[in-house]
Structure formats: C-alpha cells, structure tokens
Amino acid sequence: MKTILLTHARRYPRMEPRDAVKLLYQSEFGGGHLIRDEDGCLRFLQQEYAATPQAENCTLLEEIGSGMVRIQLAALDAHGYPVEDLGRDFIRSAALPRGSMEGFQEKLSLLTALTLTGAMPFSAEELDAYLQQYEAAGFPPVSHSDTYRSAYHPAYRVVDSDCIPEKYRMR
Fold first, then answer.
1. Rounded CA gap, 93 and 96, in Å?
2. Which residues contact 53 (CB under 8 A, 6 or more apart)?
3. 115-158 pLDDT per residue, tens
4. What is the C-alpha to C-alpha distance for residues 140 and 145, in angstroms, rounded to an integer?
5. 13 in the Ramachandran plot: left (φ > 0), alpha (ψ -120 to 50) or beta?
6. Residue 90 and residue 83: Cα distance in Å, rounded?
7. Cα–Cα distance for residue pair 75/58, rounded to 1 Å
8. Phi and psi at residue 96, in whole multiples of 5°?
C-alpha cells in the first residue's frame, strides 16, 4: 500500500487529504457503496461514459491496492472494453464481500506515517484536521475534493481485478 500511496502522490500532486482517504477507502471496501439499484447504476455509467472524452494514451487500469483497480472511462475505447462489460464487472465486483474497519484504519495509519515524512502533497496538520472530522462522521465513503476533480477530471469505476476479464488485465 505504501508504494501505491507514493505513486498516487507523484501522479496527483494536487491531491488533498480526502482524496488519499478515498483511495484507501476504495482499496479496502471497493466501490459497491455506489450501487443502490443495478439498472440505475448502469444508466449512470452510460451517461458518465458518454460525457467522458476518450483518450488513446490513457492507461486502462490504475492499481489502488488490495486487488482493486480503478478502470478509467477515458480508456475504454482505446482498449476495446465495452462500457456494458464494465458495468457488469463493476456490479459483480461490488457484490463480493471485502474489507474491514480494522484494515482501513491500518491504511489510515500508514497514510499518517507517510505524511509525517513529507511524502504526501499535503501537511500532517491538514491530514490530522481532516481525519478528526472524518472519524467524527463515522468513516463514510467520500467524494474527491473540488481541487482534485478540477485538476484531474476523475471518471472511473473501482473493480476487483479478479472480476475483470484476463484480456483487459494484460493491457
């Protein structure tokens, strides 16, 4: 997990504490908190995909730890991954049991330790203030910060890599 956090810190230097916490949350628990009804989930994915410009040089899979990946919507066409297949794989992945609060808190401790060394693009004080509020709220799933959204335009689905067909894992 340390390598993944450091990689994301380099790749996304405008990341804020909430973005790092989101990464760890997704790594531990997946993305299933987004699915309230499968048909609605698939419709929303189709809409987001239609609004996402496709990029020929975009990496399809981004490792986030614990066997989870972010599948980039901008890379679907270049890698021949039909959005309908992604929707199916996302729903299948979300149905798998995964994660624990203990595992998540261990990841948060690692984030704190890395931040104290100066390895993250935010200060230990910023992280501590965020984590105090986050814990008081009960450790909920969170959205990306406005800064992150503005800088990186994230559009992806979190999927257990075991739910992705082998032909897409190799790219």
1. 6
2. 74
3. 999 999 999 999 999 999 999 999 999 999 999 999 999 999 99
4. 15
5. alpha
6. 10
7. 5
8. -75, 135
Contact 31, 159 (CB under 8 A): yes
Q: Specify the pLDDT at position 33.
A: 61
Residues forming beta bridges with residue 71, ordered by sequence position: 61, 157
**Would you call 156 helix, strand, or coil by DSSP?**
strand
Rounded Cα distance between 134 and 124, Å, is 15
| Assessment of whether the complete model's pTM goes beyond 0.90 | yes
User: Could you identify the residue written with the tokens 């929707």?
Assistant: 87
Q: Is the pLDDT of residue 36 over 80?
A: no
Residue 14, pLDDT score:
98
Amino acid at 156: Y
Pull the structure tokens for residue 24: 């760890």
What single string gives the DSSP state of each residue in 48-63? HHHHSPP-TT--SEEE
| Short-list 160, 148, 8, CA closest to 93 | 160
Cα distances (angstroms) measured from residue 73 to each of 76, 86, 117, 137 = 5, 9, 33, 30
Query: So where are the chain's domains?
Result: 2-169
Is the Cβ–Cβ distance between 77 and 54 less than 8 Å?
yes
